[in-house]
What we know:
By secondary structure, the chain is mainly alpha-helical. The chain has 15 helices and 4 strands. Helix 5 packs across helix 13, helix 6 (176-189) runs antiparallel to helix 13 and helix 7 (199-227) packs parallel to helix 10 (281-311). The radius of gyration is 23 Å and the shape is globular. 46% of the residues are buried.
Amino acid sequence: MTMGENVATKNHHQLHHQASGLSIDMIPQGGSKCFDDDGRLKRTGTVWTASAHIITAVIGSGVLSLAWAIAQLGWIAGPAVMFLFSFVIYYTSSLLADCYRSGDQDSGKRNYTYMDAVRSNLGGVKVKICGLIQYLNLFGVAIGYTIAASISMTAIKRSNCFHEEGDNSSCHISSNPYMIIFGVTEILFSQIPDFDQIWWLSIVAAVMSFTYSTIGLGLGIAQVAVHKKFKGSLTGISIGAVTETQKIWRSFQALGDIAFAYSYSIILIEIQDTVKSPPSEAKTMKKATLLSVAVTTLFYMLCGCMGYAAFGDFAPGNLLTGFGFYNPFWLLDIANAAIVIHLVGAYQVYCQPLFAFIEKWVANRWPESKFITKDIKVPIPGYRPYNLNLFRLIWRTLFVILTTIISMLLPFFNDVVGILGAFGFWPLTVYFPIEMYVSHKKIPKWSSQWICLQILSFACLVVSIAAAAGSIAGVVTDLKVYKPFKTTY
């Protein structure tokens, strides 16, 4: 497996340098102005671009379910759980950042992807398990984002309908056409070849995420001001409004929603691979992580808490599309349009590593195939020609079509978000970073540091299992009244 990967990487470098007229032996190492120590073009990422990528990945649609999550847990447990998650995410992300290079932090071998880091530090069957979980999770996120984008598009249509016909109108609209529109848009954006070429999309998406989060926050504050009181209770939604069993399942699902709102570890190494050095990539990444998690937590606390203060036990599953707010309708439209634009970018930030993995594996498997390796130069007036690859065009298009069809089959935003959060949180955010760090730093077994790390890992495993159980229970409940492809909002 490792030899195959090395060959693929070498082939990639050779193809890249042949295309630019350089032989592999002509590449100056170390001190080159154009190339990094691994022969790749000089990386240009900074704390700010890395932070933009992280914020784009983190402040996603997850923020909109936080008012609902806090409503299940209450004023004490809700914010406490959120702080706890932010601490765990920051801590394990810092451990993961140290695993970008094997050996020396400044000159060791680079690991280009999360899987490469697992291969270098752990090896064996864990690499395959990690890859399976990581790429299934990325696939799931693509589905979650398609659902969220379609809900926001239908919300714009409904908000205008309520404005014209009154707040008590039914205004039911099918989400299917909007999922198809989002899918077509993603097919176009998916043709951007590499992760490092979408930095501008990340910055646009990060701005959009702040836009809709701020609007959600502002509307929550306005609602509190109108009622002149904070709604909600110390223990969350009361027994009576829901049964005891529902209360337990919903509290577990809320954990999954919060975990999903924070998770970005699966693409951390890929983001770190865009960062320039010196200083060491790990230092830059830790700064970017601290900045991003601090900003994110502040936003999450404000949006989640103000949403709960505004609606109490009746906080909607999606703050901007649940129609707790009806006016000003134009502001809701702006917020939901910002969500859609953000999700277009976030979909790419999550899917590009998956695209790259499949394309690298296929190129390594069939290196002689012109269909897979040949680029066709498409001239663009005023710009460099675009390298059209037929395999990339067809496979990425089929991928987007598949995620769109599954989204139309399972359009349950909150439950899907909870399952994704639970499924990815423990293995990718906690277990693998801790195990890699232990191996990388050679921490002795049964030392106090090793025991503390294992306790943290076990506690997070329990949370993940509870969250998954709650979310699956939610999907089972939804399916009882559900008809395929007939969902309306």
